[in-house]
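Q: I'm writing a short methods note and want an example of a predicted protein-small molecule complex. Could you take the sequence and the SMILES for adenosine-5'-triphosphate and return the bound structure as tokens? Please keep the output block clean; save any remarks for afterwards.
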Amino acid sequence: MNVESTTRLVFRTHGLAKVYRTGDVEVNALRGVDFEARAGEFVVLLGPSGSGKSTFLNIIGGLDRPTTGEAWFQDHDLAHASDGALTAYRRDHVGFVFQFYNLVPSLTARENVRLVTEIARNPMSAEEALDVVGLGDRLDHFPAQLSGGEQQRVAIARAIAKRPEVLLCDEPTGALDSRTGVKVLDALMRVNETFGATTLVITHNAGIAAIAHRVVRFADGRIQAVETNTARLRPEEITW
Ligand SMILES: Nc1ncnc2c1ncn2[C@@H]1O[C@H](COP(=O)(O)OP(=O)(O)OP(=O)(O)O)[C@@H](O)[C@H]1O
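A: Understood, no commentary inside the block.
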């Protein structure tokens, strides 16, 4: 997909700063982040440990608030929203994928996804969501009967089943070997291409940057560089 600069803005942050205070200690996790993402973009966020990537993702995902600065999802002001408004924002618009899958062990893949489809406003079926991530033949397996990569793909199916406009992924392949990780990245790319969900992926693996439309490098609480990939690679073509 070619994401034109005329495409609608989904995220916009300006001067985003976050200070964590623990006792007398202050940590400047973000020091003024200006960022934009457009509908359908696939963005990879790179940067050393502690550079602020997760803090940034948590703020634009409505899990945390900035200390100062602006954070917008479309016309939702995330920096000043009430707790209730942030909860509604997350429920209605955001799919999250984390390093650890957080599946319910006593439920099958299908039932884990149904936890979301039963409360969402316009969900796809659990079967469709699992099919998109290549698990149409594992519907009735329990998490313990699935590999790590398959469990992560169930987590992705659960995240996309409500048709979120944005998919925010924090180290989705962090616990996986590269062969398994490729399948997870394939699933994320397929979701991005099929549903047009704006997708942000935090990773420590610089090789993964090659599958993105755009690569954003964090350093010391700031965006240090932004690069656009003119030619993107498929996950099968990268190494890490
Ligand atoms: N809840 C918190 N309380 C205090 N300090 C925090 C908290 N969350 C993050 N920090 C600090 O803020 C800084 C940025 O952390 P953040 O998790 O955003 O970095 P990161 O780039 O995602 O790192 P990693 O790649 O290791 O996950 C770090 O110095 C971290 O210790």
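A: Remarks, as requested: The first strand starts at residue 9 and ends at 22. The longest helix spans residues 178-195.
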